[in-house]
Amino acid sequence: MTDEPKRILVIKLSALGDFVLALAAMRKIREAHPGAHITLLTTPPFESLAKASPYVDAVDVGGRPQGPGEWFALIGRLRSAKFDRVYDLQTSSRSSLTFYGLLPFPPQWSGIAWGCSHPHRNPRRDHMHTLERQADQLKVAGIWPDAPTEPMSAPPPDLSWIVDATPSSRPPPGPQRPTVLLIPGGSAHRPEKRWPAERYGELARALYDRGYDILIVGGPQEGELAQRIQRILPQARDLTGRTDFARVAALGARAAIVIGNDTGPLHLAAAAGAPTIVLFSKASDPALSAPRGHVTVLQAPDLADLPVASVLAAVDTMTPQPALNRA
Length: 327
Hints:
alpha/beta
């Protein structure tokens, strides 16, 4: 790439875990173009997180137009913005359709759209972890010449900016127990990606008896999971539906350990630096999408078969000094 672009579009639509992983690539794009005006094309759930980030200057949440009217409005906005370059981090048929909508004079484009100026044609791309795949895409685009692309080599996203901007709540007086953050939810249409709530309850009871406080995080629709955990450990605190993305990251950064399913909030907590145990079933491949950092992956073909003892053993490995029991 030759002329330094002044107006850049980054495309990243969903889902939360993938969005969090893509923050690593967004950081590199900002570093490569410090003087450019960068717009992120995304969807409404990620607006506040994107606006809080240091990587973009503007956010367009119309990335999933519904019907021809919204589609032509999107293409019209993008044409009017006169972007010099686009980094398509979604790399889907939907995001590539945006490139075709900008023909016959599209901007420079890094992605997989046929005919784009900087195509990512690595035949292994669909078998690479998101972090290495996007690093390789930016290497091909010419802005990250020494990008780490070997398995497990790319660095995780850094969420210190969101943690630093989120005030800590005032702790109650007296000795404080270290906190375990449980994230028992996940996509409602993917129940096979969830460890049973009763197992989380048994785990919560064991950890509470060791001296930990237990916080349960998730969306409003996951309150029922928290209630099932509280039936086994009434002392567990239910924060489902009461934490935004920033608060989840802040809670994760200050937790002794985070334990949860392969779901977006867990990616947030892990990216904030939390020691993290993530539970995978055969429904997804941790080699392609697991969070990075201080992370232990536990996998079972059917998560119902994963024993609580295995998770406790991982806790012992990641936190070798047991918490003092101040119950």
